[in-house]
């Protein structure tokens, strides 16, 4: 490789040839009209994504207003009992799953590439797919309210209330299938964000020069990878219990409703930080810009972010203080819950110190930030209160908790997000929102919020339980409730003002923004176009625009990296994860119908399942898979161009195989998700055994013989060996050996995956009889599911091989399949050891 740039020189020589910019523009030309559906550019998808999340916020908020109307006076009958239950469930679920998480990811999709000066994130079609799946799934979810079949078990859907016995209709299925599948889109977004931040940074942006926001997004995406599988597994188990009567949560047959709580809160607690950390990251970017000085204690803030992400996984039990947990673990989790306020405190002090040292600009964003600090600190304090166990026992399931959770969520994420909307609006299309309307909106939201939610602390302590649709008039709660309702409406008018402001801008009434209106120091303020920045800047510090006042002009003149489109198509530079050295030029997929159709059909498939049209659901299911094949068929282009000059003396290839390829990283992250899901199933097995060892077999009679264990394990191991053989065959271009090895390996895996349920059926185990049977067959089904995926992937690989698109110098597709394959074999062996050895050892 060529040496990197010496300090003074600019990466590309000026002036640039005229046709260069033309080529760049042509490659990134957006589609118009109906073509918008095909679009993948993060600038466009990001805006649609944010808009959809705001739409869902407004819908969920409207439900809250109706609930507040119902609660304004005692014995009210605006909403009946059953509808109220549906309303709070859809409100809570909508806010948490369809607004809070999606909007932070959406902001990431919009903002990250420009903060990293990348032309786009590494998997543009994946984010577009995630967006469409989310849009269609979310709309269907809200529609369930219209037909009065919305879920009504609360946003955390505790069984047994949500199991078949107590929720016989399809309401709960809407939640389980609707939300379960929308999580796919959250995970897709997380993969995109992780690989994007690690691999598409601008040259020179080493780990210590990553903007705080990117750190926060990296941590949050990492948390999604480890937290969301738990809720996906939980929803899958509950849905399977409902559909096939496999008793995971039914105590009479050895299940345990607490299993749900563990799995759910293992996700649910980190969820709060998944929402809060990106918001904190946004704050850490806005505060320095508004105060015109670097963030005080930058390194500490980063450590705090990473630390929060790490520790918040240990805390799920504090949502279960009232469930009869042993006292020693109670104290441990109580102390840990308080400790997690320390990193939040560090960040708050860093922001206050920065604001205090700088010369503050008073923008709308500043006001929202101050509102955020006030509300969030208040919510943190009540959080410490409920972390005290005796207090929690008092306040549990009262309005005190409703007040606390809204202080944290609205203070901690809604206010920063609105600050961010006003702050970064100019980067969208160069116009500004109205400072005057914005200030009105802020004050209405701030005052309305406190008027609405502060009294709930009091009504909660006076004994008002949460999730009641009405109350008698003689308990002293009347005034407090009326005040809360009035406050909620004032706040809603504040939100409405923001929407009006945004609509004004959309209809061309916005003021044109100056370049970098708040004089910020980070890369997203370099003027942007469909192709992102004209050239990719060389980064030397945390605030490049402050340290080099010429940077923006240099970039716009094309003096930095990749000033054009050398291969005449969309592409960006992939850099090394730590030092951000250019490694290769990644071609990026352009607009296409496939991912849109994949999103549409995936949503249709799950909606059909939710309304129990099982056979019909096969049609969109097959179409979704076909669309995915169509989508990925055109990727993995191989080195179809010679190495290209990207500036700074770097001449890089246009294709790299093996572990340096970005899609290999994407697959690896996906397997982390998969592994976490599998770990949750293993946890389920062991957990159910600890609560009901009596339904487990004692002695070896009831178990399949050891021969099955060794036989099946051998099949998995040999199948893995076949894959390694196939891999060597690819390296030597021995196509027929590869095809043969793949087919043999696949047959072995099919045999292994089928043998496992077969031998349990043989020994008389019935899935619906006991929790033991249920989890054993669940683990076996999990393996079958993986092999089915591998059948599809192998078929695809073979098709590529026959089409001449797979050989020694073009094997990225193959390598990704190999990862999934080897993982599946390993998982198969672990699963066998657990199922066959554990009952033998645990007598
Ligand atoms: C726009 C202002 C909002 C108002 C007026 C509001 C009001 C309410 C009300 C009346 C309830 C039902 C309480 C009960 O009956 O137990 C509730 C529950 C809830 N809200 Fe909000 N809310 C608002 C915004 C939000 C936001 C922004 C989030 C999250 C990001 C959120 C998350 C929740 C959750 C998770 C629940 C619990 C639902 C359950 O118990 O299953 N809310 N809210
Ligand atoms: Cu928690």
Automatic annotation (TrEMBL):
<dbReference type="GO" id="GO:0046872">
    <property type="term" value="F:metal ion binding"/>
</dbReference>
<keyword id="KW-0813">Transport</keyword>
<keyword id="KW-1133">Transmembrane helix</keyword>
<feature type="transmembrane region" description="Helical">
    <location>
        <begin position="401"/>
        <end position="425"/>
    </location>
</feature>
<feature type="transmembrane region" description="Helical">
    <location>
        <begin position="708"/>
        <end position="726"/>
    </location>
</feature>
<feature type="transmembrane region" description="Helical">
    <location>
        <begin position="775"/>
        <end position="799"/>
    </location>
</feature>
<feature type="transmembrane region" description="Helical">
    <location>
        <begin position="44"/>
        <end position="67"/>
    </location>
</feature>
<feature type="transmembrane region" description="Helical">
    <location>
        <begin position="664"/>
        <end position="688"/>
    </location>
</feature>
<keyword id="KW-0614">Plasmid</keyword>
<protein>
    <recommendedName>
        <fullName>cytochrome-c oxidase</fullName>
        <ecNumber>7.1.1.9</ecNumber>
    </recommendedName>
</protein>
<keyword id="KW-0472">Membrane</keyword>
<feature type="transmembrane region" description="Helical">
    <location>
        <begin position="126"/>
        <end position="147"/>
    </location>
</feature>
<feature type="transmembrane region" description="Helical">
    <location>
        <begin position="87"/>
        <end position="114"/>
    </location>
</feature>
<feature type="transmembrane region" description="Helical">
    <location>
        <begin position="738"/>
        <end position="755"/>
    </location>
</feature>
<feature type="transmembrane region" description="Helical">
    <location>
        <begin position="174"/>
        <end position="198"/>
    </location>
</feature>
<dbReference type="GO" id="GO:0022904">
    <property type="term" value="P:respiratory electron transport chain"/>
</dbReference>
<dbReference type="InterPro" id="IPR035973">
    <property type="entry name" value="Cyt_c_oxidase_su3-like_sf"/>
</dbReference>
<keyword id="KW-0679">Respiratory chain</keyword>
<feature type="transmembrane region" description="Helical">
    <location>
        <begin position="300"/>
        <end position="318"/>
    </location>
</feature>
<feature type="transmembrane region" description="Helical">
    <location>
        <begin position="613"/>
        <end position="633"/>
    </location>
</feature>
<dbReference type="InterPro" id="IPR023615">
    <property type="entry name" value="Cyt_c_Oxase_su1_BS"/>
</dbReference>
<feature type="transmembrane region" description="Helical">
    <location>
        <begin position="272"/>
        <end position="291"/>
    </location>
</feature>
<feature type="transmembrane region" description="Helical">
    <location>
        <begin position="437"/>
        <end position="458"/>
    </location>
</feature>
<dbReference type="InterPro" id="IPR013833">
    <property type="entry name" value="Cyt_c_oxidase_su3_a-hlx"/>
</dbReference>
<keyword id="KW-1278">Translocase</keyword>
<dbReference type="InterPro" id="IPR000298">
    <property type="entry name" value="Cyt_c_oxidase-like_su3"/>
</dbReference>
<dbReference type="GO" id="GO:0016491">
    <property type="term" value="F:oxidoreductase activity"/>
</dbReference>
<keyword id="KW-0408">Iron</keyword>
<keyword id="KW-0186">Copper</keyword>
<comment type="pathway">
    <text>Energy metabolism; oxidative phosphorylation.</text>
</comment>
<keyword id="KW-0249">Electron transport</keyword>
<feature type="transmembrane region" description="Helical">
    <location>
        <begin position="590"/>
        <end position="607"/>
    </location>
</feature>
<dbReference type="InterPro" id="IPR036927">
    <property type="entry name" value="Cyt_c_oxase-like_su1_sf"/>
</dbReference>
<feature type="transmembrane region" description="Helical">
    <location>
        <begin position="210"/>
        <end position="238"/>
    </location>
</feature>
<feature type="transmembrane region" description="Helical">
    <location>
        <begin position="364"/>
        <end position="389"/>
    </location>
</feature>
<keyword id="KW-1003">Cell membrane</keyword>
<dbReference type="InterPro" id="IPR014241">
    <property type="entry name" value="Cyt_c_oxidase_su1_bac"/>
</dbReference>
<feature type="domain" description="Heme-copper oxidase subunit III family profile">
    <location>
        <begin position="665"/>
        <end position="840"/>
    </location>
</feature>
<keyword id="KW-0812">Transmembrane</keyword>
<dbReference type="Pfam" id="PF00115">
    <property type="entry name" value="COX1"/>
</dbReference>
<feature type="transmembrane region" description="Helical">
    <location>
        <begin position="820"/>
        <end position="838"/>
    </location>
</feature>
<dbReference type="GO" id="GO:0015990">
    <property type="term" value="P:electron transport coupled proton transport"/>
</dbReference>
């Amino acid at each position: 490789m060529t040496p990197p740039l010496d300090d003074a020189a600019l990466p590309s020589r000026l002036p640039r040839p005229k046709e260069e910019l033309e080529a760049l523009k042509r490659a990134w030309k957006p589609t118009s009209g109906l073509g918008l559906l095909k679009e993948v550019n993060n600038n466009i998808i990001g805006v649609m994504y944010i808009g959809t999340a705001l739409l869902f916020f407004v819908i969920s908020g409207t439900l809250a207003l109706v609930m507040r109307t119902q609660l304004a006076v005692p014995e009210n009958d605006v909403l009946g009992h059953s509808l109220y239950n549906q309303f709070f469930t859809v409100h809570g679920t909508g806010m948490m799953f369809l607004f809070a998480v999606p909007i932070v990811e959406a902001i990431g999709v919009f903002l990250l590439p420009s903060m990293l000066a990348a032309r786009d994130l590494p998997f543009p079609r994946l984010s577009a797919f995630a967006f469409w799946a989310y849009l269609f799934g979310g709309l269907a979810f809200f529609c369930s309210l219209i037909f009065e079949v919305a879920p009504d078990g609360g946003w955390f859907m505790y069984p047994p209330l949500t199991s078949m016995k107590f929720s016989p209709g399809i309401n709960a299925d809407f939640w389980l299938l609707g939300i379960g599948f929308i999580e796919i889109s959250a995970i897709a977004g997380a993969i995109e964000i992780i690989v994007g931040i690690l691999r598409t940074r601008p040259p020179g942006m080493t780990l210590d020069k990553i903007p705080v926001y990117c750190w926060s997004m990296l941590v949050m995406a990492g948390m999604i990878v480890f937290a969301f599988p738990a809720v996906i597994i939980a929803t899958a188990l509950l849905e399977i219990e409902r559909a096939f009567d496999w008793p995971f949560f039914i105590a009479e047959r050895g299940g345990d409703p607490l299993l749900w709580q563990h799995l759910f809160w293992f996700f649910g607690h980190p969820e709060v930080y998944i929402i809060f950390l990106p918001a904190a990251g946004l704050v850490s970017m806005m505060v320095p810009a508004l105060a015109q000085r670097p963030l005080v204690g930058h390194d500490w803030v980063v450590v705090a972010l990473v630390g929060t992400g790490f520790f918040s996984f240990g805390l799920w039990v504090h949502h279960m203080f009232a469930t009869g947990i042993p006292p020693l673990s109670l104290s441990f989790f109580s102390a840990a819950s308080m400790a997690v306020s320390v990193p939040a405190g560090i960040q708050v002090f860093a922001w206050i110190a920065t604001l205090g040292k700088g010369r503050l600009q008073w923008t709308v964003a500043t006001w929202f930030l101050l509102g955020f600090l006030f509300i969030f600190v208040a919510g943190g304090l009540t959080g410490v209160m409920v972390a005290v166990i005796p207090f929690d026992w008092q306040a549990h399931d009262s309005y005190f908790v409703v007040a606390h959770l809204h202080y944290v969520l609205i203070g901690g994420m809604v206010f920063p997000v609105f600050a961010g909307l006003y702050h970064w609006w100019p980067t969208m299309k160069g116009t500004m929102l109205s400072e005057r309307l914005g200030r009105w909106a802020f004050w209405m939201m701030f005052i309305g919020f406190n008027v609405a939610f502060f009294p709930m602390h009091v009504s909660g302590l006076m004994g008002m339980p949460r999730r009641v649709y009405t109350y008698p008039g003689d308990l002293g709660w009347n005034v407090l409730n009326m005040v809360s309702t009035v406050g909620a409406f004032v706040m809603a008018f504040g939100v409405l003002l923001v929407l009006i402001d945004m609509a004004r801008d959309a209809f061309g009434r916005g003021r044109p923004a100056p370049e970098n209106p708040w004089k910020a120091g980070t890369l997203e303020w370099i003027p942007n176009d469909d192709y992102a920045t004209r050239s990719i800047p060389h980064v030397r510090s945390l605030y490049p625009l402050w340290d080099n006042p010429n940077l923006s002009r240099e970039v716009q003149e094309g003096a930095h990296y990749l000033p054009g489109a050398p291969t005449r198509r969309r592409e960006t530079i992939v850099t090394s994860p730590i030092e951000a050295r250019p490694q290769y030029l990644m071609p990026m997929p352009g607009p296409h119908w496939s991912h849109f159709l994949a999103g549409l059909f995936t949503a249709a498939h799950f909606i059909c399942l939710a309304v129990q049209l099982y056979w019909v659901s096969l049609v969109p299911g097959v179409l979704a898979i076909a669309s995915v094949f169509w989508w990925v068929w055109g990727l993995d282009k191989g080195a179809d161009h010679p190495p290209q000059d990207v500036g700074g003396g770097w001449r890089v290839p246009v294709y790299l195989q093996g572990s340096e390829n970005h899609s290999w990283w994407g697959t690896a992250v996906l397997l982390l998700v998969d592994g976490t899901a599998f770990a949750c199933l293993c946890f389920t097995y062991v957990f159910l055994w600890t609560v009901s060892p009596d339904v487990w077999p004692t002695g070896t009679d009831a178990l399949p013989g050891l021969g099955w264990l060794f036989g099946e394990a051998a099949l998995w191991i040999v199948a893995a060996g076949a894959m390694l053989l196939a891999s060597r065959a690819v390296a030597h271009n021995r196509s027929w050996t590869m095809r043969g090895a793949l087919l043999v390996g696949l047959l072995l895996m099919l045999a292994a995956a089928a043998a496992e349920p077969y031998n349990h059926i043989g020994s008389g185990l019935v899935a619906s009889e006991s929790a033991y049977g249920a989890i054993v067959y669940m683990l076996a089904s999990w393996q079958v599911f993986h092999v089915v995926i591998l059948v599809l992937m192998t078929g695809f690989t073979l098709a590529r091989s026959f089409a001449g698109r797979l050989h020694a110098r073009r094997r990225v597709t193959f390598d990704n399949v190999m990862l999934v394959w080897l993982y599946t074999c390993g998982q198969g062996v672990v699963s066998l050891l657990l199922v066959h050895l554990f009952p033998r050892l645990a007598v």
